[in-house]
Specification:
Length: 455
């Protein structure tokens, strides 16, 4: 079978879970359309541009193979999918694993006696061997006016904390060096199940953001928190970051700073209080790295609103920033708002915003020159340069540190590096000796399967 996985890390985890179940039944993966008996396309439906990419992937799979199962966020609108592609074999919604399995079985029946030993304890993963995404919940209780995630994935549904911690422990034992905690709203974890307790390692743990962070901190590997809302209780994990239990890194989608625009977005949070909260976080953990995403050109955004956002950025000094110009999303209330911003104005504001963000990033990285940083190696280039990341850099979305003069390093190694140079987004460094973190015993690793190259 072939697998095309599109969209966010949460969708990637869905793909990994489906592949794990298929592997457990004896199915193998193909690196080409021609070599597969069926193709599964896990779609993304967050933005119109993402929908178009998903539709193109479905069309390509149909043209190259002919037997296609569509799942993921766009699968919730089966009528639309079948109107454009009437020949797809099956259409299922997001995280509907059983429905995907049934559809695969209908096209390619499973072997009577699958070799379950082919599936490693940590399951099938699509990330490199040394890091993994850890999804702690599905869905979201917020109703942001520009977002249709609750329509696609439902309300918040948290996993039991012991189940999450056991999965994390299994990944650590398999050699994973970094866990990236993901959900739609990580800091709301456990709210829907009233922070129910469950047992792990002979101790009761609450299904709460703080207890989960504390448990993950016992594994002795890097733990990085993504998609965190700036609720007051987030302050409870900052001491864990200051102690080195989890990485001093918070990915918080602030989205904007203008009170008028935040209200139109139906986003929580008072930005003046958020600035105070950021200041208090940095007092507790001076090495804290803050990443965020922002939307410019939201309907009704005036030049005054945009300038307020720029002023807020200067005050907040966000370390890592991503931004995009507002796009209409079918089914999102924001599409119906008045006073949409012309495209050329949106693009101008995006460029101006990123110029400020780039300058702040350059200043912050320049301050690291001469410092010794703990890093994790992602790859060794053909010229011998090690491409690594600091504790303040998440894979795929943040920068790198390029290491020369190291010998004997390989992907997944921890190391120490003295920073010698910086630009707006990346660092360069020299060896400062290897380090080993206290971590659970590793296990033999499996070779990774290469899937169709949209993963």
């Amino acid at each position: 079978m072939g697998f095309v996985s599109l969209g966010c890390p949460k969708a990637l985890v869905d793909s990994e879970r489906i592949l794990t179940r298929l592997k457990g039944e004896g199915y193998d993966t193909s690196a080409s359309y021609a070599g597969a008996d069926v193709i599964v396309v896990n779609t993304c439906g967050f933005l119109d541009s993402a929908k178009e990419e998903s539709l193109n992937a479905i069309g390509e799979a149909l043209a190259e193979n002919g037997k296609v199962i569509v799942t993921g966020c766009m699968g919730g609108d089966e009528a639309m999918i079948r109107a454009r592609f009437p020949n797809v074999a099956a259409v299922t919604g997001a995280h509907q694993y059983d429905a995907v399995m049934d559809a695969v079985h209908n096209i390619v029946p499973p072997k009577p006696d699958p070799f379950k030993s082919l599936v490693p304890d940590e399951g099938v993963r699509l990330t490199p061997k040394h890091y993994a995404y850890l999804k702690i919940s599905e869905g979201c209780d917020h109703r942001c006016s520009f977002c249709i995630i609750p329509t696609l994935r439902g309300d918040l549904a948290s996993r039991p904390v012991a189940e999450v911690l056991r999965e994390a422990e299994t990944l650590a034992k398999a050699g994973v060096k970094e866990l990236l905690v993901v959900s739609q709203d990580t800091s709301a974890y456990g709210l829907d199940i009233r922070y129910a307790q469950s047992e792990w390692r002979g101790q009761n743990w609450a299904a709460s953001f703080e207890d989960l962070s504390r448990g993950l901190g016992e594994l002795g590997i890097w733990v990085r928190m993504h998609y965190v809302y700036p609720y007051p209780h987030v302050s409870g994990v900052l001491p864990l970051m200051a102690e080195g239990k989890i990485l001093p890194y918070l990915d918080i989608p602030f989205q904007h700073a203008s009170p008028k625009i935040l209200k139109a977005m139906k986003r929580p949070g008072n930005q003046d209080k958020t600035l105070q909260r950021i200041e208090s976080w940095r007092e507790i953990c001076p090495d804290l790295t803050l990443r965020s995403t922002f939307v410019v050109g939201f309907p009704g955004e005036t030049e005054a609103d945009f300038n307020l956002l720029l002023d807020w950025m200067e005050a907040a000094q966000i370390d890592r920033v991503g931004a995009f110009a507002y796009e209409n999303v079918e089914g999102a209330p924001a599409k119906l708002l008045p006073d949409h911003v012309p495209e050329e104005v949106k693009q101008d504001r995006l460029a101006r915003f990123m110029a400020v963000a780039s300058r702040i990033s350059a200043q912050k990285l320049a301050a690291k020159v001469g410092r010794i940083e703990d890093v994790l190696v992602d790859e060794i280039r053909s010229d011998g340069v090690a491409v690594a990341r600091t504790r303040g850099d998440a894979p795929e979305i943040d920068g790198h540190i390029y290491l020369k003069g190291f010998t004997g390093l390989k992907a997944g190694d921890y190391a120490k590096a003295r920073v010698t140079r910086a630009d707006a987004y990346d660092l360069w460094g020299e060896p400062e000796g290897l380090i080993k973190l206290n971590r659970v015993p590793g296990a033999a690793r499996r070779p990774m399967h290469r899937l169709i190259s949209r993963v």
